[in-house]
Amino acid sequence: MDDRDNERVRIGIVGCAEIARKLCRAIALTPNAVLQAVGSRSLDKAKFFAAENGLSSTGVRLYGSYKEIVEDPSVDAVYLPLPTSLHVQWAVAAARHKKHVLLEKPVALDTTQLDQILEACSSNGVQFMDGTMWLHHPRTLSMRKLISNPQLFGYLDYVYSSSTFCAPPEFLESNIRVKPDLDSLGALGDLGWYSIGSILWAVGYELPVSVMALPQITCNSAGVILACSASLFWDRSPGCQEPTEPASATRRTVATFHCSFMAHMSMDLTIIGSNGSIHVKDLAIPFEENSASYEFTPLAKFVDLHIGWSAKPERTGILSEIPQEALMVQEFASLVRDIKRKGLPPESKWPEISRKTQLVLDAVKKSIDLGYSPVYL
């Protein structure tokens, strides 16, 4: 084991939202990170969080304000699970105090706000990463290798993603994700972030030519989106044609997604190529914590008389030694440590992924506001 493994990155949690409990546990499972501090709007709330998560006797610093934790010199990095409307204020403040930023999604209300956050991180030399956990699961890398193999997968034709759950009445009445002053993007920001992100991941983060929301959306009385769908369209450059196609042919890729607080639980991702297809049923949160799977169906055709398929889905199972949220923290901490120890620049991949996701999310919202007209990127 490298001796640097003993130098753990000290993380502070800013805000005691429900998901902060999950990250508290993830940090404890991560070999290169340690929970240094917890800050809330009051000291009583921070103490309650500490007691609820077994931190009372661990020496974790507790603060009764967000300001105290972002100014604490013993904190290397912060995790921010705050309402989206507060992200720009506290992410910028953290970056200006040289804290590396792990920011819960959606990262901002729009790209203008996100650019303020990213500029603060860049100018202060700190790492930015959003809290999209599934990107760090080893299943994701396995699927990427398959999609990148033209012989096995072929040309990417279509992607579909859904991210839904049926919220109880109390959620729809009082949760911050349905409050216009806290998380005005509603289901589009909370669940649509996963769907948009998974589609962009499938196409290698190439931005679509156009985005169009599909009618009709569902909103609450305050105008916050509770359910919506959209389509994305790419004109792909020539060069990826099948052998039977003319050399001048331009292939097109289409994607659709649906996100909702009002439908049964789904975290589906379907990626269809010219030679095969991938299906995932539990993308954002795997059915089991330490393992996940996906199905790949290669070169399927109908058999004689169309009474069946020539190929059945092949299931690939992937084990994970620690949960995906701990893998995310581990990756984040590794980048922070390399910046501190080696003087390396922050990894640009993560802010670029977040910004492209935000750009498409903004385009969906703009299309809704324009009466479902296409928006060109």
TrEMBL record:
| Domain of life of the source | Eukaryota
Q: Which GO terms describe its molecular function?
A: nucleotide binding
Which residue spans traverse the membrane?
Answer: none
In this chain the Gfo/Idh/MocA-like oxidoreductase N-terminal domain maps to 9-129
Pfam families for this protein: GFO_IDH_MocA (PF01408)
Endpoints of the signal sequence: none
Name of this chain's protein: Gfo/Idh/MocA-like oxidoreductase N-terminal domain-containing protein
User: What is the originating organism of this protein?
Assistant: Trapa natans (Water chestnut)
